Predict the structure.
Amino acid sequence: MAVDIVLQYFNLNRILLLTVGLWPYQRTKLVEFQLYLVFGILVSIIPALLTPLLTLECTVSLLIKILPPVLITIICTINYFSFIIKAHAVKQIMDQLQNICTNLTDETEVDIMKNYGSKTRSYTASIILFQTVSSGHNVEEFVVHFSCLSILLLYLFLANYAAQEIIDHYNHIFITVYSIQWYAASICIQKMILFLLQRGAKAFNLNLGGLFIGSLETAGMLLSTSVSYFTVLYSTR
């Protein structure tokens, strides 16, 4: 499968990352300056958003008004910093993925890669469209809060959905191993199957930032906890 995966499947991601200086290739001094400039702007926005808490009376309605944009800015800042320190790892993953795609010869494997590549483009385009619509110049408070909440929920769902997909694929490998006719395989293959069965006995999960396990179950738990928290917060008004 001789194809440039960056241009074929990740071109939109490449353009977006180039815009904010996070594309892991071609890291010139100008790009380094762009990195620190954008990161400095993000960090400086946080205290500016928190200023009303120091100048105005701290009430529940004020917290509800201030917290959504503050949380979004903090999440963006953490993600941006993570990309900076993990740029080399991202580059390695892209190189490995390119090498894997180049060596693919089986039509089924090629179709699987094309399918996931198309999903990647669709997810990226959907997020951009959603953020564009959400950032309209409507000054109504409801629209502002709804947009912030929608972005947070979308981020929560997509991050945990991606983690769930990886976990499901991992588990599918061992389900397939359990189903094959191991007794008809050679001794070498049987040893490999035994190794996979032993490895499959251990639970696999993705630890997101050391805070929680990424999965759709976790997304539901976080959403339920958030609803309970804001219900209590609203009842104290």
